[in-house]
């Protein structure tokens, strides 16, 4: 959870206006997946703490550490294949707007010619 939350795309997302965050999530499947995973992890941690399962968590800590290590290794693949995860939300929005503008300009030029 900490590793996902530390990804620039996710961590900067917490600071963005909620409507922009929701809109961006809905518009970009890759962003949605990363944000959903981070949100689910945060909910799980909060719920676990709230239900007073700390003694149980302490007892299973070695197993949790092993699972965490595997999860961390599993996150390496998406980070490699989805470089968008390394960018803050503002940059993703800016890059997306620029890409759309370029495509629209190309289509306009093609239609005009």
From TrEMBL:
<dbReference type="InterPro" id="IPR004279">
    <property type="entry name" value="Perilipin"/>
</dbReference>
<dbReference type="GO" id="GO:0005811">
    <property type="term" value="C:lipid droplet"/>
</dbReference>
<comment type="similarity">
    <text>Belongs to the perilipin family.</text>
</comment>
<protein>
    <submittedName>
        <fullName>PLIN3 protein</fullName>
    </submittedName>
</protein>
<dbReference type="GO" id="GO:0019915">
    <property type="term" value="P:lipid storage"/>
</dbReference>
<dbReference type="GO" id="GO:0010890">
    <property type="term" value="P:positive regulation of triglyceride storage"/>
</dbReference>
<dbReference type="GO" id="GO:0005829">
    <property type="term" value="C:cytosol"/>
</dbReference>
<keyword id="KW-0551">Lipid droplet</keyword>
<dbReference type="Pfam" id="PF03036">
    <property type="entry name" value="Perilipin"/>
</dbReference>
